[in-house]
Amino acid sequence: MSFNMEFGYPREAEKAKEEIWPVLIPVGTMEYHSDHCPYGCDTLVAMGIAQKIAEKINAVVFPPIWYGVASYAVGGPEKNTIQVDCDTFESYIYSILKSLFRSGFNRKIYIIIAHQTEDYLPMTLACMKAAKKLTFEYLDETQGLGWWGNNDNKEFYENLSATDNPWNWVRVIRANVITDGSETIKKLPADHAGKYECSELEYLWPGTIKLDRLGESGDWFAETAKETSVELGKSIVCEKVETLIKMMANE
After folding, report:
1. What is the tally of structural domains in the chain?
2. Which of 109, 147, 116, 112 is CA-nearest to residue 131?
3. What is the 3-state secondary structure (H, E, C) of 181-245?
4. pLDDT 10s digits, 153-189
5. Residue 216 included in any domain
6. CATH number at residue 141
7. Edge-to-edge strand order for the sheet containing 177-179?
8. DSSP strand pairing (177-179 vs 184-187)
9. Is the whole-model pTM more than 0.85?
10. What is the pLDDT of residues 75-114, one digit of tens each?
């Protein structure tokens, strides 16, 4: 029953809201990935993971956000990377999430990122900040100012189920690090245009890696791409998908 929102219809959308299906939003970049790997690599990996999840459970896959906070760390604009300012990106994510909340898609939203795997870098922070800002605003609007301090909410945390917990309504998922909100559950190998990322991409989107072009630029970070393996990519993606599905089932 899973569906992609751009091909969806009101009947299916209302069913998904009523049954609180996970909402999956792939977020990525258009960023230089050397000569053998496409600019859309990060977004394509996030899209592929979302689609694999939707093959196994009921979920709504929203269109990807292609332009993100790429930074020029790998190469300057002459390398054709598209860089979106962090504050601008945060506002954009906030607006999308606000529309979802207003529509009734306000539980179990997962922003899936396959870019910048280290802790608390700009794109992840922008998404997290947008989500938390909106959550607090929504609670103020729906529960009233001072909602948490109200005596009626004295046992607020004790009475929460995982789905009702507002801090879990929007989760920002870095695709190589799976957490339950407080601690890391699993950390998987990652790189930039090397054997891990290229293996994932080639498994998810066959034919996208051009190994015959490897080495044209001499980029150090791409050297391990010669070890690209569809089997390696499959094992990494399957582990990510299974871990995320288990996490979603518990929320």
Report:
1. 1
2. 109
3. CCCEEEECCCCCCCHHHHHHHHHHCCCCCCHHHCCCCCCHHHHHHHHCCHHHHHHHHHHHHHHHH
4. 777 777 666 667 898 899 999 888 666 555 566 678 8
5. no
6. 3.40.50.10310
7. 3-4, 60-61, 23-27, 109-113, 170-174, 177-179, 184-187
8. antiparallel
9. yes
10. 999 999 999 999 999 999 999 999 999 999 999 999 999 9
